[in-house]
Amino acid sequence: MIVDVTKIEGPVMPVSFLAEAGQIALDMPNYRIAGPVSIGGEIERHIVSIEVRGKIGGKVTIDCTRCVRPVEQPLSIDFDVEYLTEGRLGSDGEHEIGSADLGTDELDGNTLDLTQLAREQILLNIPEQFLCREDCKGLCEKCGENRNLVDCICGQDDIDPRWAALKNLK
Ligand SMILES: [Zn+2]
Ligand SMILES: [Zn+2]
């Protein structure tokens, strides 16, 4: 959803829309949008910036970091982002305050792409590690079986010294 910020009505304008999963292309192999993503909140106009705050909701499918099993998870992100409106930031380096200092982005023209905002927020909130369950046993490093499902016998063999060395590394 694209908002023309010159057409924001009143100091605060509510926004609410649903983006299809395909509109938010994350390009993450182990983290995928699993359904429509809702974005709801409001846009507040300040003198040199606009502030967008609200909530992103939906469902995602995340692959377990250990056993790569895909698990569906709810998506729920609170966000509060500020954008400097065009022309307020100098690109000539004369201005002392840059967008990076303020932790804000500059708007691209007069339009705010809320779908893009949602995508950025989702990417920012992807967990570094995700386990399908706290005690996920992961995949056997020898036979590749999912050790949550199969009790392979690899661990019972006399451990090959090369594997033992690898195990010590972990
Ligand atoms: Zn797992
Ligand atoms: Zn095994």
Q: How do the helices and strands follow one another from N- to C-terminus?
A: EEEEEEHEEHH
Helix content: 10-25%
User: In total, how many beta strands?
Assistant: 8
Number of domains: 2
Pairing-aware structural class of the strands and helices? alpha+beta
Main traits of this protein?
about 170 residues; alpha+beta; six-stranded mixed sheet; 8 strands; about 35% strand; elongated; binds zinc ion
Fold and architecture overview:
With 170 residues, the chain is an alpha+beta fold. The protein folds into two domains: 134 residues, no CATH class; 34 residues, no CATH class. The protein is 14% helix and 34% strand. Strands 2, 3, 4, 5, 6 and 7 form a six-stranded mixed β-sheet that branches. Strands 1-8 form a two-stranded antiparallel ribbon. Strand 4 and strand 5 form a beta hairpin. It is elongated and about 70 Å long. The two termini are 46 Å apart. The structure holds zinc ion (2 copies). The site of one zinc ion has 7 residues, from loops. The site of one zinc ion has 6 residues, from loops.
SSE layout and pairing:
Elements: E1 2-4, E2 12-19, E3 31-33, E4 37-45, E5 49-63, E6 70-84, H1 99-102, E7 105-106, E8 111-113, H2 114-124, H3 161-169
One zinc ion binds at residues 64, 66-67, 69, 131-132, 136.
